[in-house]
Model the fold of this input.
Amino acid sequence: DTAVSQTPKYLVTQMGNDKSIKCEQNLGHDTMYWYKQDSKKFLKIMFSYNNKELIINETVPNRFSPKSPDKAHLNLHINSLELGDSAVYFCASSVRDMDLKKLFFGSGTQLSVL
Amino acid sequence: EDQVTQSPEALRLQEGESSSLNCSYTVSGLRGLFWYRQDPGKGPEFLFTLYSAGEEKEKERLKATLTKKESFLHITAPKPEDSATYLCAVQALSSGGSYIPTFGRGTSLIVHP
Done:
């Protein structure tokens, strides 16, 4: 069973569109995250949710809106997509907030904005 | 601002040719330094945590060491299956009072048979 699963794996869309990425974890973790890995391979945290509550929002444009219906799910909705949003987006989870020892990542969603 | 620099960006080795990857950092109040392995098309996978200068951790052909300014990931007699990107991350108390991690760009390792 996949611990952290996210869909879709690939997402190709036009500028200005709205898209969503879904994430689910079956590890029973309390904290979930969205990370962005840009073309230069830098991995940066975007959001952190602990028990469905937003903990960290790292100066991400408000076109990005995370939603956590329950502690096993954290979805990312992006409005009015821009070229610069092209990147790989990783969902992750951990037992406790910012516990990098036990941080489990999904396989990523490669977003290409044309 | 916290900085994490990994070198080299890319490394090609022959099978059995030992080498080291470097992660240098400039943070105050280091909480931990973490090494991850990332395979193509996959998310990073945790390898090691180091907390204080002088600490070492080992796993199979990998050994991670830490000084006050940098960490090394030593690869002894690598095999083709060690080919991956190795990411370093540091965690320190930020001015905002949180422990947001800072990742390096990674070293892409290719081991030829």
About this structure: The radius of gyration of chain B is 14 Å.
